[in-house]
Amino acid sequence: MRIVKITHNKKRYLDLLLLADEQEDMIDKYLPDGDMFALYDDDLKTICVVAAIDEETCELKNIATYQKYQGKGYARSLIKYISDLYKNDYKTMLVGTGEIPAILSFYESYGFERSHYVRNFFTDNIDHPIFEDGIQLIDMVYLKKKL
After folding, report:
1. Extended strands (E) in 30-129
2. What is the Rg, in whole angstroms, of the alpha carbon atoms belonging to the chain?
3. Phi, psi for 92 (deg, rounded to 5)
4. CA-based torsion, 67, 17, 48, 5: positive or negative
5. Structural domain boundaries enclosing 124
6. Closest CA to 57 of 79, 10, 89, 84
7. Helix, strand, or coil here: 139?
8. Among 19, 23, 111, 121, whose Cα sits 20 to 30 Å from the Cα of 131?
9. Residues 91, 34, 25: CA angle, nearest 5 degrees
10. How far from 49 is each of 11, 104, 131, CA to CA, in Å?
11. Cα distance between residue 74 and residue 26, in whole Å
12. Count: domains in the chain
């Protein structure tokens, strides 16, 4: 298994980015300045994008694993890698997601704790309704992790 920082032609991973963030113009807001990482285990399994928020905080803006490889620990390995990588540069890492129990417990299992909400984020910023596990996403739930 190897993790590579992607610095050029990040949009070639758009198919994977869209698994976690369904609207391309939202990805375009953080992709140019974000740090992108790709995890390979023979072939590409998982990508993520991390962006600086301020001097003390970064945000995991996108993490996605191809569906056929989900549940095999690839996202866990990538989250551990970026947490270790950024611990000397930032005090806190944020991640925003919908209020879906399985997704929240996924992040909580990596040491993230609920921080705050952005009300109506999905309905105000996404041009179509998004459903996950049969639940419409409305509010953005932010979780934070001390690095």
Report:
1. 35-41, 43-52, 57-65, 92-98, 113-118
2. 15
3. -135, 145
4. positive
5. 2-146
6. 89
7. coil
8. 111
9. 130
10. 12, 19, 22
11. 24
12. 1
CATH of the domain at 109: 3.40.630.30
Contact 62, 20 (CB under 8 A): yes
d(CA 125, CA 128): 9
For the chain, the residue count is 147
pLDDT in tens, the chain (147 residues): 999 999 999 999 999 999 998 889 999 999 999 999 999 999 999 999 999 999 999 999 999 999 999 999 999 999 999 999 999 999 999 999 999 998 999 999 999 999 999 999 988 988 888 888 888 999 999 999 999
- pTM assigned to the model: 0.92
> How far is the C-alpha of 83 from the C-alpha of 95, rounded, in Å?
12
The DSSP element (H or E) to which 84 belongs, if any, is: helix 74-86
